[in-house]
Amino acid sequence: MAFEAKNRNFSLFELIIAIAILAALAAIIGIQVLPPLERAKEARDLELVEYYLSAAEKALSNPEIGLEQSGVTVIDIYTGSYQAAEANLQQEIREITGYHSIDALKNEALSQKGRRITDIRIMIAPGEGSICVQAVNGENEVFDKTFSELAF
């Protein structure tokens, strides 16, 4: 009997089936992994926004700011144009955070929501002793979270 060599190569059909199975597995894994990654990026971006709360507290502790002690003061850190105490507070918060423009903040943002931020809005109610911070896109909040604290 003569020894016959068996063809041990994969056929084109077998290769296509193997590639299709690998692609389906990659798609399933991608669907399971991508949403948690985006949520982790959003959590990191929320930390950036929360940093403005501590920056506002620190800025308000500066006696040179001279903010009025009545009513509610709303300051848009990057788009607002203010006079006197509000302008000083706005500049002080920019200095403390190190983000002198909204583009600098967006460059640090990791999530899609974080890159849509157009401003940081800070609301100060000295009579109530509270500070609230929101990341906004126009008039809408970017995140569903507002940071607030009784500060003084």
Helicity level: 40-55%
Q: What shape does the CA trace take?
A: rod-shaped
Number of helices: 4
Radius of gyration, in Å, reads: 27 Å
How many domains? The number is 1
Q: Give the biggest beta sheet.
A: 5 strands, antiparallel
Describe the protein's architecture and organization.
With 152 residues, the protein is α+β, with helices and mostly antiparallel strands. It has one domain (12-150). The protein is built from four helices and five strands. The protein has helices at 12-60, 84-97, 102-108, 112-115, and strands spanning 73-76, 119-125, 130-137, 140-141, 147-150. Strands 1, 2, 3, 4 and 5 form a five-stranded antiparallel β-sheet that branches. Helix 1 packs across helix 2 (84-97). The longest helix has 49 residues, at 12-60. The model has no long low-confidence stretch (mean pLDDT 84).
